[in-house]
Structures are given as C-alpha cells and as structure tokens.
Amino acid sequence: MIGEKGRTSDSGAKVLRVLIALRGHVLTGLSNGELSKHLGESPSTVNRCLNTLIESGLAIKLDSGRYAHSVMMLQIATAYTNEMSRAQSRIDEITQRVLAGSQ
After folding, report:
1. N or C: which end of the chain has fewer CB within 10 A?
2. For residue 9, how many other CB atoms are within 10 A of its CB?
3. Residue 57: left if φ>0, alpha if ψ -120 to 50, beta else—which one?
4. Full domain range(s) for residue 81
5. Which of 9, 42, 54 is nearest to 22 (CA)?
C-alpha cells in the first residue's frame, strides 16, 4: 500500500499500480487481461484505471488494443534524466574545483 492507511486513496493507489505495471512495455504495451492478472484486479477495475491514465495523458491505447505509457510519461522520465545529468555535471565541476585547490 502506498502511504499510511486512511491517508491515501485506494482508487488512486490502484491507478498508480497500473501506471507502474506499464513500465518496460512502451513499444508492445500490455493488454487489460495481462494487467488484470499481474495486479490481481478485475478487468473492469483495470479498465477504469486505464481510462483515468488515458484521460490524464499518462497512458495511451495502442492500435493493437494494448496499453502503454504516453509520450507525456516519457517526457517526464526524460526531464528527470536531464535534471540528474545536470546535477551530476555540477557535482563533477565542484569536485574538480576542490581537487584543484588541494594540490
């Protein structure tokens, strides 16, 4: 369960579990049945979660009828990667300055 009991939304947690379950399936997607089996949820529950994710722009239904993360979700992941890269570059720069000053 995500968070403390009574302080979270069960339906929100289910939506997030579906979003997480889509990880690693951007090109091929997963079917409603696969998600349902993997998560131990009914197909109708998974369908409601998928509809929520699609409406929010975080998932898409592929031409094959399977579901995957949307471009927006990939943009979020890319933004995170870029931010971490910038942070690492800054850390490397400071480290180099510290090392140069200790010689």
Report:
1. C
2. 11
3. left
4. 71-103
5. 54
Residue given tokens 């471009």 in the structure block: 71
| φ and ψ at residue 46, rounded to 5 degrees | -60, -40
pLDDT tens sequence across 13-70: 999 999 999 999 999 999 999 999 999 999 999 999 999 999 999 999 999 999 999 9
Residues 32 and 17 in one domain: yes
- Rounded to two decimals, the pTM is 0.76
pLDDT class for 1, splitting at 50, 70, 90?
very low
Residue 36 backbone dihedrals phi, psi, to 5 degrees: -60, -45
Write the CB contacts of 16 (distance below 8 Å, at least 6 apart in sequence).
2
